Amino acid sequence: MDAKGLIVFLVIGLIAGWLASLIVGGAAGLLSYLIAGVVGAFVGGFLLNAIGLKIGTGNAIVNQIITSAIGAIVVLILARLIVG
């Protein structure tokens, strides 16, 4: 992955983490948004692939943001259940 791809990945993670925190709550601040979004990208990709669901809006960036946000929501809910 080149520098541009890494920056795009991190920005997508940041947006997805922010969206997930709006929906679920819990994350506050750029670093927590970034962590939730990046971890959520892997979790969302795994979960959607496991159930055979494909996000198809016609725009690859939007698809990645939606997938990452779904994963980040799952991550934030699990973190809330574990921490209490």
Describe the structure concisely for a colleague.
The protein is mainly alpha-helical and 84 residues long. 81% of the residues lie in helices and 0% in strands.
Count of helical regions = 3
**What is the 3D shape?**
globular
Q: Into how many domains do the coordinates divide?
A: 1
Give the CA-CA distance, first to last residue: 37 Å
- β-strand percent reads under 5%
Average pLDDT score: 90
What percent of the residues sit in helical stretches (DSSP H or I)? Answer: over 70%
Largest sheet: none
Provide an overview of this structure.
The protein is mainly α and 84 residues long. It has one domain (15-83). Helix content is 81%, strand content 0%. It has helices at 3-24, 30-51, 60-83. It is globular and about 35 Å long. The model has no long low-confidence stretch (mean pLDDT 90).
Explain the layout of strands and helices.
Elements: H1 3-24, H2 30-51, H3 60-83
What tags apply to this protein structure?
84 residues; mainly alpha; 3 helices
